[in-house]
Amino acid sequence: MDSWRDYVLKEFTPQVVRLTLVADPDGLLTEEGIVMALRERGFEILEFDDSIAFRFSYESKYRSLWDKGELTDLVVILRSPTDDLSFLPYDLLRVGRKLSFNLGDLFPNLSYPVIEGLDRSNLDTLYQAQIRYKPEKLGDNTTKDFVLRHVFEIVPELIKQPHDLLRVLLRLHYKELHIPPILNERFIYILRQNKCFDAWPLEKIVSDREAFFEFLQERWPIFLEGMTSGKAEIVSEKGLTDDLKYSGPPNIPFDHHDIRIYIDNLFLEGMLHPVQHPKSDILSKTWVVSGIKVDPELDTLRRLQKLMKSIEGSIPDAEGRHQDWLIFAHRWAEVIVLFHQTGKHVELASSQLDFNKNWQDAGSTDHLKSASISELHANQFQMLQERIDKAFLLWIQKRYGGLYNQPPVPPVMVHHIPRAMERYMRSMGKEKVALILIDGMAFDSWLVVKEEFMKQRPHLSIRERAIFGWIPTITPVSRQAAFAGKPPMCFPNSINTLEREPVLWSQFWIDHGFTQSEISYVKGVNETKTHVIDEITLDQRIRILGLVVDTVDKIMHGMELGLAGMHNQVRQWAKEGFLGKLIDLLLERNYKIFLTSDHGSIEAKGCGRPAEGSIADVRGERVRIYPNQVLRKTIKTRFPEAMEWPQIGLPQDYLPLLAPGRSAFIHTDEQIIAHGGISLEESVVPFVQIERS
């Protein structure tokens, strides 16, 4: 077979049996390509994880249809450690067809303990390597070497010099490729045979992306000093190596051609940060210009120009993986922040960049009289935004339905967060965890907050990734899902209110073996409630803390000055230091901190307000919710470009109508910052872990 998916999909023929039970210990049926293929064949997938939530969905959505004589193709997945289906309810076992799939069947000649930790997106490459090279039965170490070579393109024996190692690590960490710990251990073991790397902190920088970039960051000023002085010994004379956090050689070959090709992008995308240098006027005329501070406004404009040009060719398509869009969302958020930092009005010089020449000379700022953004750059930004909106719409219509069944570690959607936290607690023993949810904080707003936060507390370590919120991207749907640890269809009675959010939070943890006395929840957290958080965290019984900070959401809904004004107010809020004090308190009380948001927001323009009286259950700016198809279609006839969003993971009587494009259901041409739709900025939010370095 050409693909491992063929091995799985050959068992699924539509309209043969209404219920198929699958033992899936390795999560093969939740892989994106499998989910999409099954959906295209008419199969629906229901995971048996939480027995109560499963029973509610099964009885209300499927059993009721079967009782009426209607036929559906339902696949129930059990993610037990073995192929044993006996954990499923008897009534399912009695009527369902039984199947099982595991990695051992797909890769019989490779060591199962080695390959089980691979991300499912790596299986395509591994399967093709198996077909091509036809390995005999391999042991643990030979399987590790086979996977490192053919999946991650790493041959440790060929890494002999620092630039060889840096090239490999830059490729891995820049692309955010996840290598399982068992493979990292093998990689490091082989590297340690080379005395060249004796002093290197391999255990940190190989497996830890943030540590690797911190390692590079603290050596960048040393490299610049050596570059301007022409003498390596000047580095130690000036004491630049005295306070290095990471061991290893102080001098890194940033100028090696294998390394240099990454440098611009690392600074452009915020993985490394420019530094001040007394000879910046000289350095600004060299290839290191992206990594030095020259003039704040010119630096921002130069970075914006280059970053827009860089991401123009990297927009994922409709066939992209969800990881591709999550990585891209971070880069796009950087562009949004830079664009609104520079302002929208400029005095242009007589010579302007020609957009039709594919942004030639994008790194030059000599043509500008000021460092504000030009009308030309506004046009570039607008065109780029339209391309992203179009590509993301195609992708999310095709792939969104497969996201909520993804494994919860690492989390892909906000309702995976409690399960990821629970697994962390189980693996670490008696840890305490806190979830800080900043309502309405888009990824671009988070970048603004993070910048100020890290100025105040550079000693803290931030590990950030992106996850998807729930659609429609409104608080009762997405925020409740984040605290409930379940899709919205599992809390239909509270879908239009937040009153039961504390109950849903507690219920999740109680269902996983904790007691009510160990759980706490506080909403509306701000300066006035600091004493409340202090009292709660002093209680040694409290191990699980859920906090809602709604300041950013309030800023958003009161904003009349667009995203630039919102970023300014969010930055001011971050400077005031409340969030930092809250995090300090939680770290002091030994909480592991997870920080996220429920949805983002966009600048939207009014397309007209539906005159619908009280027929809509929710009357948001970007979405209307109706209890049945008739009412929704009635309003859609007046707004033909609006989108009838399918009930993916939503209650049966919860039917969203989304405002088209970047518009809102408000008076025509009125401007607003709003949420509820399916744009990238609304749908993808930060998921951050904060700890002491």
Brief sketch in words of this structure:
With 693 residues, the chain is α/β, with parallel strands linked by helices. 44% of the residues lie in helices and 12% in strands. Strands 6-17-9-5-8-7 form a six-stranded mixed sheet, sandwiched between helices. The chain has a four-stranded parallel sheet with strand order 2-3-1-4. It has a four-stranded antiparallel sheet with strand order 11-12-14-13, covered by helices on one side.
Strand order, main sheet: write it out. Answer: 6-17-9-5-8-7
> Which oligomeric state applies?
single chain
Instruction: Identify the CATH architecture of the domain at 403-601 and 681-692.
Output: 3-Layer(aba) Sandwich
Question: For the report, how would you describe the main beta sheet?
Answer: 6 strands, mixed
Any idea what the shape is?
Answer: globular
| Name of the CATH homologous superfamily of the domain at 403-601 and 681-692 | Alkaline Phosphatase, subunit A
- Name of the top-level CATH class of the domain at 403-601 and 681-692: Alpha Beta
- By DSSP, the count of extended strands is 17
Structural class: alpha/beta
Rounded radius of gyration (Å)? 26 Å
Helical content stands at 40-55%
Using the coordinates shown, work out and report the CATH topology of the domain at 403-601 and 681-692: Alkaline Phosphatase, subunit A
Distance between the termini: 48 Å
Write down the overall mean pLDDT.
89
> Percent of residues in beta strands?
5-15%
Low-confidence stretches: 344-372
Pfam families: PglZ
